Amino acid sequence: MSSTHTPKHSPLSQAKLEWRNETTPVASDYGDVYFSAADGAAESRYVFLEHNQLAQRFDALFNDKDKSHFIIAETGFGTGLNFLQTLKLWQDVKNNSPNKQALHKHLYFISTEIHPLTKPDLKKSLSCWPELKNQVNQLLNLYPHAISGIHTLEFSDGCSLLLCQQDVITGLQQLNEHDFPALKNTLGRCVDAWFLDGFAPSKNPDMWSDTLFQTMASLSHRGTTLATFTASGFVRRGLKAAGFSMQKTKGFGRKREMLIGQYRGLPYQTQAIKNHLSKNAYSAFWPVYQNRDAAKNGRQKTAIVIGAGIAGCTTAKQLADAGVNVTLVDSEEQMMQKASGNKQGVLFPKLSHQQGDLAEFNLHSYLYAQRLYHPLDAAFHKSGMLQVIENNKLADAEALIQRFQNMPNLVTLVDQQQASTMAGTTIKQPCLWYASTGWFRQASLQQRYEQQFKKHVDVNFMPRTEAVKLQYQHDAEKPWTVMLKSLKHNSSQLMQADFVIICNAFAANSLLKTLDNDDFQLPLKNIRGQISQINNDQLPQLKTTLCHNGYITPADPESPNTYNLGASYDLRDTNAELSKQSQQQNLQKLIQYLPDFSTIDTQAQSLSGSVAFRCTTPDYLPVVGPVPMKAAFKYRYKNYAKTAKAFIPVTGPYYSGLMLNTGFGSRGFATAPLTAAIIKAYCLQQPFPVNRHLLSAINPARFLVRDIIRRKS
């Protein structure tokens, strides 16, 4: 709960606890309790839930045709008691609401924590609240590793916990769409209620600073409420100076007073002076997307999602669960074909010992996907994964282990003998062992989405259909018109929508060409990959997935006589048919790393498997977010050609409601779930599930900015 700023990506030290009467956790570094020894749950309800009037406001939300969600932000997660109390209240009010539209309403609970508790300490701290047993179990099942950044945990009944494992200032400032004083958050991303619950000001004064109060103001709208257990004078004065009207009220139990307040706002000139920074201190303006507000007309929103691979399916589900009417189109007869159609897919944790946007994005994507897939017993097989370490990569592997040394459930280093025992076959090199990952049965995952969408009244799947043209009319109620062509009936139709999300991999460029956008194209590559299926008679019975310069999965219990392995990496090869040469390459790589497989007669193996094409980008990050208006973008940011550090305080010109979600390479299963949540946040003006710098790193306009800086036409 300290507010000392932490460098980006640095390891987090977990909370050190002492125990008072074996039931009350005390933070050793601060000498303060996490909750009241008398009745922490009752104090939490009284101070935060009752004085923010949450029961009444949740009920009002469920009857509001315009507002889709409610946002609470907290300045110290601690044991999670305040969150669990709020979650229970949300679930109770929602489940008792007679209004059908309550089903699609969402609660976002944002909390910061620089010293997260270990899971055993968390479990012990919450064991004395039997009335919260169900909520506690949900939290324990989802509780993340102590890794810096935003961890988005999805709970039942439409609740997301955005746990910012960072110091309070850094964590909250990352929730701002920009750090420029004149650019306020989109209204839908402003906090509705604040819980100020750090350790007492006398124990941890840095956490109750003017910087915190001003950051809170930047994230608030007029009418945002706050409550805190303290009645400290400097806290009251600091909040008042930041624009909150403050008053004292009766405290809980023996505490005489506490503070409550409401944000009233400050004149712009005053706020600009308080937040004055040199122009070089501001982040870039081009990634800021300010879409037209179509959320206030009281009608259900509509979206067309183009492409029904893993990206399209996860995006369609995110939007439909939020109450958007989704039409999902694909050129194939079934969902999850082409690059998402391998019989067995691997949830591959592409972790790195290095720091940077790619490493951070891969890490948080994997953790988000892992939480999503683990409950899917039929589709996801948690068999772990061994990654063979090349002879010249041992130092990198040791650096990776050093980075995650306190997280053995995430990754450990095993020697050749240990790896061979784990795998059930001889391995010559040491390996990285990822215990919590595994492989997918594609057919089960596909079936799961098909069943969900058939039951979901807000999803309409159109197979054997191509989107062939886009048209935008900015002043229309539904600004997007898409021409859809039926491949089955050779007919066309026009469909209108509020949002269009392009998830069809390399084909995205063909569709973008139909838009009047100065020939905006993405630098995508289409790389052929062939999966080989071999008979496993007389071969070792693998116990886990093995990744080397390729991969092989354990036999699927539904196809026990077959191994799936691959995948080839065939540059500039457009052949969609199975190739004997690619199969030979797959088999030779397998034998090179797994000597027990040398008994394979590579020539006798029948040609069997599948071919798909990976859609990749130059920086290996996907393309996620709004489509830029190319000509306007180049004109607005032309001074970047003079200097990449030009100060251009104008937001990027983007099409409203047109999104891209593509460019995943071979990591779609690991990254698409998180990017789907990002797309939903863009469309519905909800909190983003990742830090702001990651949104910039995957923004489609990054290539335009790069070309302007390089003075490319």
Detailed description of the structure:
The protein has 713 residues and is α/β, with parallel strands linked by helices. Helix 10 links the parallel strand 12 and strand 13. The longest helix is centred in the middle third of the chain and has 17 residues. It is globular and about 85 Å long. The N terminus is likely disordered.
Break the fold down into its secondary structure elements and pairings.
Elements: E1 17-20, E2 24-27, E3 32-33, H1 40-50, H2 54-62, E4 69-74, H3 81-95, E5 106-112, H4 119-125, H5 133-142, E6 149-155, E7 159-165, H6 168-173, E8 191-196, H7 210-218, E9 220-228, H8 233-241, E10 244-250, E11 257-263, H9 268-274, E12 302-306, H10 310-321, E13 325-329, E14 344-346, H11 357-373, E15 380-381, E16 385-388, H12 394-403, E17 412-414, H13 416-423, E18 431-434, E19 439-441, H14 442-455, E20 459-462, E21 465-472, E22 480-486, E23 491-497, E24 499-502, H15 508-512, E25 525-535, E26 545-547, E27 551-552, E28 562-566, H16 580-593, E29 609-616, E30 623-628, H17 630-636, E31 654-662, H18 668-684, H19 692-698, H20 702-709
Parallel strand pairs: 4-5, 4-8, 5-7, 8-9, 12-13, 12-24, 13-20, 16-26, 24-31
Antiparallel strand pairs: 1-2, 2-3, 6-7, 9-11, 10-11, 14-19, 15-19, 16-18, 17-18, 21-22, 22-23, 25-28, 25-29, 26-27, 27-28, 30-31
Helix pairs in contact: 1-3, 2-3, 10-18, 11-18
What's this entry about, in short?
The protein is of the alpha/beta class. It is built from 20 helices and 31 strands.
Spell out the key features of this protein.
eight-stranded mixed beta sheet, 20 helices, alpha/beta, 28% helix, disordered N terminus
